[in-house]
Amino acid sequence: MTSPAMGKVLSRRKFFANGIMAVIGVFAAGLGIPLAGFAISPITKKGEETWISIADVDQLKDGEPLQVAYSYTRKDGWRTVEANKTAFILRKADGTPIVLSNICTHLGCAVAWDAPAKQFVCPCHGGAFDAEGKVTGGPPPKPLPQLVAKVEQNKIYVREA
Ligand code: FES
Predict the structure, then answer these.
(1) If pLDDT is split at 50, 70 and 90, which confidence band does 80 have?
(2) Given CB 3.0 to 4.6 Å as the disulfide criterion, which of 19, 94, 120, 147 pairs with 129?
(3) What is the 3-state secondary structure (H, E, C) of the chain?
(4) How wide is the angle at C-alpha 99 spanned by C-alphas 95 and 105, nearest 5°?
(5) Any residues with Cβ below 6 Å from ligand 1, and which?
């Protein structure tokens, strides 16, 4: 049988035990949440954008896409990856350069410029694109991807993330 005084002592102990657990919980959350955030941040973080110089404007010829290969370093989750890409730069009728990916939109083969036919051709399934990347034949469902580009001080840059 418990006396009213003993019940009071037990509930005080329980109160302090609960208080200590609450303090430990707050410290654990204070440490655990930032640690968990640090651990998963590479997954949720978007890669930093980088502008890469790929050519000089003077290298462009009218009606003839310039093929360029470039590489850059990017973060992929916890890894640092060296990416190598190829693109085509051409001058539009108004003089502004556009940069096209060389990756076919059908199944990802590398397209090449066919100078006599004045079109990009895909060797895998016969896809064809005009000089501005629009589909002119074969199975590709979309035009060649256009990369985000800018011109500064006579240099052409593409943006990569
Ligand atoms: S991958 Fe280019 S046409 Fe199929």
Answers:
(1) confident
(2) 120
(3) CCCHHHHHHHHHHHHHHHHHHHHHHHHHHHHHHHHHHHHHHHHHCCCCCEEEEEEEHHHCECCECEEEEEEEEEEECCEEEEEEEEEEEEECCCCCEEEEECECCCCCCECEEECCCCEEECCCCCCEECCCCCEEECCCCCCCCEECEEEECCEEEEEEC
(4) 135
(5) 104, 106-107, 109, 122, 124-125, 127, 138-140
